[in-house]
Amino acid sequence: AMEKSYTSMFLLLVAISCALAKDVGKKETKETKETTAKPKLPQTLSRGWGDQLIWTQTYEEALFRSKHSNKPLMIIHHLDECPHSQALKKAFAEHKDIQKLAEKFILLNLVYETTDKNLSPDGQYVPRILFIDPSLTVRADITGRYSNRLYAYEPSDISLLYSNMQKALKLMKTEL
Question: What percentage of residues in the chain have a pLDDT greater than 70?
Answer without folding.
Answer: 74
